[in-house]
């Protein structure tokens, strides 16, 4: 009897776990047959391949089709390869694809309240509240703060540059300091102090998404969100939340009591909270076309005619969640950009020399004064170099959307595809950036793809390091500014070289991120 019951249970479980297996077959969309539980991600779960490599293999096989299917664990999701379709989902038909995957909203109580996870009207309201953080006026204030910080950084760096430098560690610390100083208004001291407690916490924030155990949490959530909820597991650990409460809620209270005002996020959150959300205009100038930023995202107006707020402004966690997001969204991404970019500059000495010459020209123009916001943003070759860095090593492997209103997408040649509410759809950013149809000889690091002569031939939708459309990265201009500034100062003072241990090629960790597997040590040789 027990035997028959066991067989019946296994059978029911198998049927349930494979319930979506014919999803793409029924819709005539190419896909790879999934395995139970792991879907198409077996190599990733076995730690044999990175997410980048898994997607790349499936993309190359299916890219002739404008859309293909991917089983991320048990979830069947569409992957779009065609720039026109990408524009349609991310911009033209945005009202049907406002949100990220549902799981971000429910997998962690605190993260679920962050801008990244908020949905529909709540997302629109929060985006309008937060986007002025990166208005042109605020960016200039942040630039001044960062310029002062750069002086201290260079003094500290002199000490570190004596030996070979682990550039991941260096730029993680730089990014943590810059976010603390310019965005949140406190000193991180992560570069200065090798044992900085703040650095330990910020690093553990990164681990929230980029470890094997976080992947298992997503897997459990994918199998059953109810089981996940019942297990009591959360993504963000208690130490991180305690730290964020201090830098957000305690800081807000302190400023209110002591009448302190600083031009940063905490101040903005304080004002929004006091005004119960009524300070949510997007009238501050955010898009500045004069700045040379090929990859920067243009902010869209996402307002609606609803007048009452759907957010609970008195909820502390709502604000803690935004601080968390600002840390985490800029941390891995900017560190990854700077790590991989300095690696490519060391490898491609001709590119480094051309960039150094542009820096020298600016220094001459500045007549000994520090580089200004405008001068930094007018540097054309600098912009090409950064844009190419983000093409070859986009920090986000993919960007995703979740259908909130059914729609029929036109696939061309008389074909169409009906997308139902609740259906995930993603854009494989890394694979599109490495597609020779969009970027010939894609593995070559060639900044001139983005020069004035060539950049007009880049098809909209084929270059999306910051995503695209109203839900694209909110911090793109800040990320570009802090990256350009540090590259400027480092190259003005040092020549970057490979060491005997520097890897010949970079590969990626077997997790859901695009983090580099190898330790990257580089030599920084003082120029004078
Ligand atoms: C090189 C650095 C960075 C890269 C490549 C990057 C990339 C991205 C991408 C791909 C997205 C998703 C976009 C989409 O779904 O279309 C995103 C979202 C976001 N990023 Fe960034 N990011 C970077 C730095 C930053 C920084 C420094 C901040 C702020 C301090 C930031 C804040 C955000 C926020 C708040 C979102 C969520 C936007 C929303 O859901 O409305 N990012 N980023």
From TrEMBL:
SUPFAM superfamilies: Cytochrome P450. PANTHER family: CYP9F3-RELATED (PTHR24292:SF54), CYTOCHROME P450 (PTHR24292). It is a peripheral membrane protein. Gene3D superfamilies: Cytochrome P450. This is Cytochrome P450 9f2. One of its GO terms (molecular function) is iron ion binding. It comes from Pseudolycoriella hygida. May be involved in the metabolism of insect hormones and in the breakdown of synthetic insecticides. It comes from the Eukaryota.
């Amino acid at each position: 009897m027990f035997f028959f019951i066991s067989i019946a249970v296994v059978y029911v479980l198998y049927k349930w776990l494979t319930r979506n297996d014919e999803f793409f077959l029924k819709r005539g969309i190419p896909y790879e047959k999934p395995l139970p539980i792991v879907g198409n991600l077996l190599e990733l779960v076995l730690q044999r391949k990175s997410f980048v490599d898994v997607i790349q293999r499936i993309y190359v096989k299916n890219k002739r089709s404008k859309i293909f299917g991917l089983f991320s664990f048990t979830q069947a999701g569409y992957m779009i390869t065609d720039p026109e379709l990408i524009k349609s989902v991310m911009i033209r038909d945005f009202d049907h694809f406002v949100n990220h995957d549902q799981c971000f909203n429910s997998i962690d109580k605190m993260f679920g309240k962050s801008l990244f996870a908020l949905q529909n009207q709540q997302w629109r309201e929060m985006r309008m509240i937060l986007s002025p953080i990166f208005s042109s006026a605020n960016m200039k204030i942040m630039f001044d703060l960062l310029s002062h910080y750069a002086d201290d950084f260079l003094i500290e760096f002199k000490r570190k540059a004596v030996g070979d430098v682990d550039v991941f560690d260096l730029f993680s610390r730089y990014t943590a300091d810059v976010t603390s100083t310019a965005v949140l208004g406190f000193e991180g001291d992560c570069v200065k102090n090798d044992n900085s407690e703040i650095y330990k916490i910020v690093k553990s924030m990164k681990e929230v998404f980029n470890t094997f155990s976080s992947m298992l949490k997503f897997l459990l959530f994918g199998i059953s969100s109810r089981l996940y909820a019942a297990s009591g597991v959360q993504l963000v650990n208690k130490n991180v939340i305690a730290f964020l409460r201090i830098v957000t809620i305690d800081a807000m209270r302190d400023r209110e009591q002591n009448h302190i005002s600083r031009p940063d996020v905490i101040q903005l959150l304080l004002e929004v909270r006091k005004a119960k959300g009524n300070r949510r205009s997007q009238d501050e100038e955010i898009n500045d076309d004069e700045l040379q930023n090929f990859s920067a995202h243009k902010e869209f107006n996402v307002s609606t005619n609803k007048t009452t707020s759907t957010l609970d402004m008195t909820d502390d966690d709502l604000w803690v969640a935004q601080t968390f997001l600002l840390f985490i969204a800029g941390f891995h991404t900017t560190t990854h950009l700077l790590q991989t970019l300095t690696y490519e500059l060391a490898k491609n000495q001709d590119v480094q020399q051309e960039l150094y010459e542009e820096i020298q020209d600016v220094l001459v123009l500045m007549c000994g004064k520090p580089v200004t916001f405008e001068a930094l943003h007018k540097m054309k070759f600098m912009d090409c170099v950064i844009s190419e860095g983000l093409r070859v090593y986009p920090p986000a492997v993919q960007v995703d959307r979740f259908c909130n209103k059914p729609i029929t997408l036109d696939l061309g040649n008389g074909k169409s595809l009906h997308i139902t509410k609740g259906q995930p759809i993603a854009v494989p950013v890394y694979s599109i950036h490495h597609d020779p149809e969009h970027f010939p000889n894609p593995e070559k690091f060639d900044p001139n793809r983005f020069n004035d002569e060539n950049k007009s031939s880049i098809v909209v939708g084929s270059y999306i390091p910051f995503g695209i459309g109203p839900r694209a990265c909110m911090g793109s201009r800040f990320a570009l500014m802090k990256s350009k500034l540090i590259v400027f100062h480092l190259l003005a003072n040092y020549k970057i070289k490979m060491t005997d241990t520097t890897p010949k090629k970079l590969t990626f960790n077997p997790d859901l991120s695009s983090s580099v597997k190898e330790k990257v040590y580089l030599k920084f040789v003082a120029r004078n």
